[in-house]
Amino acid sequence: MPTVTPGVFMELKTFFDNNPRLAIAYSGGVDSSYLLYAAKTAGCDVRAYCVKSRFQPQFELDDASRLSDALGVPLAVAALDVLRDPVVASNPPDRCYFCKTAILSCLWELARADGYNVLCDGTNADDDEADRAGSRAVRELGVLSPLRDCELTKNAIRSLSRAAGLFTHDKPSYACLATRIPTGTIITDEMLIKIEIAENTLFDMGFSDFRVRFLPPRGAKLQIPDGQWGKAAALRKELLATLGADFDTVLLDLTARP
How does 226-237 read in b/e, with b if 16+ C-beta sit within 10 Å? Predict the structure, then answer.
């Protein structure tokens, strides 16, 4: 176990002492990965539960499986068509609340069927509940957030993950694919598939920490860190050739951050 501030470590240890049998809503990201590792290291009877929907790219599930296998923690994956909910598909400003409610309700059902009465998520101390509609669903459904309650920030979690040798320690934050679509624009499977393909293309070309935003009616807006603008300019023809199959217009956003 890596060295951490004694008060924080004892608080997290106390949580596991009080909850020796728990399920984790697991995404394969930095936070839930560290929580899974910490629970396993603390000797908990822990099981990971993950939802596979069109909102999550395949690499997230691949990362989740890779780490859970390495830790020897069972992973249950449930397929969920979140777009079957017309409210989610309509993409209102609080879409995340309805989506998170559906996901956590599904995971609760799986966890309880396996005999787990505690479900935790990877919310950390930096996550501002006021800016996250999904946080309301977490509270309403009784999901616990030990990393937040123990005041562990994203930087602290990355540092702890690095010391623990977790490959997720430097993984970029990755919001779900639905966030690429402007609020009020109806979300379709086709749209999400095109965005995932476009982002996979940029990954393969060596870009990182970026977003491909859908620009109605058939455009794409690339949000790339400042240091990669030169690369985008050099690869302009390749970008247009590959993304042009799905998007009529491809723009480079020089103002917004990814």
Answer: eebeeebeebee
